Amino acid sequence: MQKLSGQLALVTGASAGIGESTARRLSAEGARLVLAARRVDRLRALAKELPGAEALELDVRDAASVGSALESFEFDLVVANAGLARGTDPIHSVEESAWNDMIDTNVKGVLAVIRATLPGMIARGRGDMVLLGSVAGRQVYPGGNVYCATKHAVRALYEALRLDAAGTGIRFTTVDPGMVETEFSRVRLGDQERADAVYRGFEALTPDDVADAIAFAVTRPPHVNIGEIVIWPSDQASTTIVKRSE
Ligand code: NDP
Ligand code: 8X3
């Protein structure tokens, strides 16, 4: 029998990268997926490939619509993955629109998903909630300022969940990767050439590597809670040190 057979899983940010890989992997483990993101065309295409999956157009920055879109589901597993970075400007010149986008998506968006899904899981006495943090939630690097602050906040929310929901039967996990080659850098830097340079000369993590870690965490026996997973590319020593071949 598949390990997640019969479970209903929500993945936010399932239209690309880590979220898409995670959705595929959880589906392969037997879960039925609700795939959420803004680019619903991509979600619909993915849903066609995954048995029982459905696409849900969702902007996590809009807390009210997150609440109403998710209220009718009884999730067993929630992966709060949707997130982004905007730019690498120093803190004294980051544009307000950039910091709003990061804080609204990475912090308030995660909170909206928690509020929309956790009370139901607590009432049912079981479930898994996985947050996508980052090594940027453990170290700050030049130009990382607001993005790092949002990921430090995600880590604080993970710790808060463990404390506030202790004894409810819910397991919480934060998965904190180093550099993963996805659309992340294109979104952050605004052009593909600069994004490609970020991953040149070393082997970055793939989104499947991260999905594998998430699948490991949520398929442990009920008494085992894998709390924090930090995953680095083998050639990345810190957020500022990457050993490249060229
Ligand atoms: P991608 O850019 O490939 O994917 C990001 C996903 O988030 C997309 O599906 C996007 O969908 C979704 N998203 C962004 N904004 C919103 C929104 N307002 N509402 C709903 N969905 C949204 O990046 P990754 O897969 O790399 O990133 C996934 C997570 O992993 C993020 O939280 C990121 O911070 C984190 N992470 C990434 C690392 C990396 O090196 N790539 C390393 C560590 C952590 P759409 O645009 O369709 O809405
Ligand atoms: C994404 C990884 O190092 O670009 O969270 O911040 S990093």
Detailed description of the structure:
By secondary structure, this protein is α/β, with parallel strands linked by helices. The protein is built from eight helices and seven strands. It has a seven-stranded parallel β-sheet, with helices on both faces. The protein starts with 7 loop residues before the first strand and ends in a 15-residue tail after the last strand. The mean pLDDT is 98. Bound molecules: NADPH dihydro-nicotinamide-adenine-dinucleotide phosphate and 2-hydroxyethylsulfonic acid. 2-hydroxyethylsulfonic acid binds next to loops.
Provide the residue-averaged pLDDT: 98
| Helix-strand category | alpha/beta
Proportion of residues in helical segments: 40-55%
Q: Please report the number of helical segments.
A: 8
Residue stretches low in confidence (pLDDT < 50, at least 5 long) are: none
Number of domains: 1
For the termini, the CA-CA separation is 47 Å
Measured on Cα atoms, how large is the radius of gyration? Answer: 17 Å
Tell me how many strands there are. Answer: 7
